[in-house]
Amino acid sequence: MFLENTINHSKQSGWMEVICGSMFSGKTEELIRRLRRAEMAGQNVEIFKPKIDTRYDEEDVVSHNQNKIRSTPVESSNEILLLGSTCDVIGIDEAQFLTTAL
């Protein structure tokens, strides 16, 4: 579900959506689907994944069904703030593996 700020257009706001579930429940597949939809809508999209997650690919986010989408590997969540500052939509795969830089 996408919501729009219809009251105060001068104030930037956003929201976070979490896709959760058990292993092999389709979380990454759903993330890829949502991000592709945002790209088709003309939004500026960036996808991040932890550099340590090289199970299927070193750069792409890949689902168990072998669907994939280009991503930017990062070492810490702080990098996302810098690299995603101009994006409309930010996707993060396997966020539990990210740390904050010291």
From TrEMBL:
EC main group: transferase
SUPFAM superfamilies: P-loop containing nucleoside triphosphate hydrolases
Residues annotated as signal peptide: none
InterPro entries named in the record: P-loop_NTPase (IPR027417), Thymidine_kinase (IPR001267)
Pfam family membership, one: TK
Catalytic activity field: thymidine + ATP = dTMP + ADP + H(+)
Alphabetical keyword list: ATP-binding, DNA synthesis, Kinase, Nucleotide-binding, Transferase
GO cellular component, one term: cytosol
Keyword Transferase part of the UniProt annotation: yes
Coiled coil spans: none
EC number: 2.7.1.21
GO biological process: DNA biosynthetic process; thymidine metabolic process
GO molecular function, one term: ATP binding
PANTHER family for this protein: THYMIDINE KINASE, THYMIDINE KINASE, CYTOSOLIC
Family: Belongs to the thymidine kinase family.
Name of the protein in question: Thymidine kinase
Organism in which the protein naturally occurs: Bergeyella porcorum
